[in-house]
Hints:
By secondary structure, the protein is an all-alpha fold. It is built from 19 helices and no strands. It has helices at residues 6-25, 29-45, 51-72, 75-106, 121-136, 145-153, 155-158, 166-173, 183-216, 223-254, 272-278, 281-295, 302-320, 324-344, 352-371, 375-385, 404-416, 420-425, 431-450. The radius of gyration is 23 Å and the shape is globular. The two termini are 17 Å apart.
Amino acid sequence: MLFSSPEFIFGFLPVTILVYFLFTHNNQVRIARYWLLLASLFFYAYWKPENLILIGTSMTFNYLLGGVIARKHSKPLLTLGIIVNVAVLVYFKYIDFFIVNVNDLTGSQLNLLNVVLPLGVSFFTFQQIAYLVDSYNGKRGNHPFQNYCLFITFFPHLIAGPIVHHGVLLPQLEDTTNTRLDFSNFSKGIFLFNIGLAKKVIIADTVASIVSTGYSNTELLTTAQAWITSLAYSVQLYFDFSGYSDMAIGLALLVNIRIPINFDSPYKAVSIQDFWRRWHITLSQFLRDYLYIPLGGNRKGEFRTSLNLIITFLIGGIWHGAGWTFLFWGFLHGAGQVVHRNFKRLNINVPDWLGIVLTFLFINVTWVFFRAPSWGDAINVLEAMIGMQPGGAGEFKLINDFYSAPIWIAAVFLLFGKNSNTLVAEFEANPRIMWRTVALVVINMVFLNSAVNQEFLYFDF
């Protein structure tokens, strides 16, 4: 059940919100929370009911272990908890990748397990590792088990983030003062949800056909086609994932819950460091707080700082997917951080416009490794981009939708205009905004009816 699917928009969401506020209106706040938990579990089970066993076991294990760690301040138990969580993630996400590489290195013929990746496992695993670490550091808080379960399963962020810290979400879920319908929050939530929906169904899903065609024919790409393919993926990935994040934040606002922003115009970044302050912000913060800083951060000399950056981004790369291309993508970003740190020492003033251009070109090139089905496909695209591949061995249309040009224009406007965070901050419930929202809803419904509804890209991660 996608956020952009009719069954979610016209079925699950209105029923969930209506029943929730019926309970809170009658001062049955505790029942309302149980209802929200039940609805979130149903939302998760909709894809594959047996996944409830995994997430239920994971929540029970981490909640109980977190309590013991907090009481005994036990580092061995913390280590055990992290190992168990990482082991679960490794099994579901990397076991077949490991088997393939063992077979390649040893010539063995071990059978693949063909493990199906449960939705959201990367996200709820990271949230629970943070919970264990904070339990050890005395930052756990005293929260009932059912509230902890709601924190993990809260349907807006469950499947693809943002990665929400327990210290941000749990206090809001337990605050009885925010359980009544708030017209301002509800209006902003509807507005933001539809901005995210437009990003997804109007822009991301439209350019998806260009990306799919290009990366399915990498050996045939001309230089122009290779650039179009790579730029289309940069557009698709941003609008797909930031669209999901906007929808998640908007959905949470409907019930007066504020979850953190995940994007802040990342393609306006003037450096690679600035980019990671703007892109997938909650992941960047998690890696900084629970990996980079524990490794020593920048406190142990320049060599260790550089090494810590490389390690952090390597892990960030492999977290996204089981493949050498993801690992290399992470390495490139870690190396980019190191180069940027050393470049800043030269005290050379780079104009913002040039910083934006150079940063985007670097990001666009690295996305090739992130998207390409294989190492060979990535090299094909990059060679074509610099004119080292003849291309054109076959004929295929890369852009064939009559509305592709307006979509590209809209994408550029949205990339460099006001972002959704600014639009919501400036939001006022007045007739002008109401009619704009109505128009956006109508356009979204037209695209939902006429376009192929695709899964969000980050469901694979």
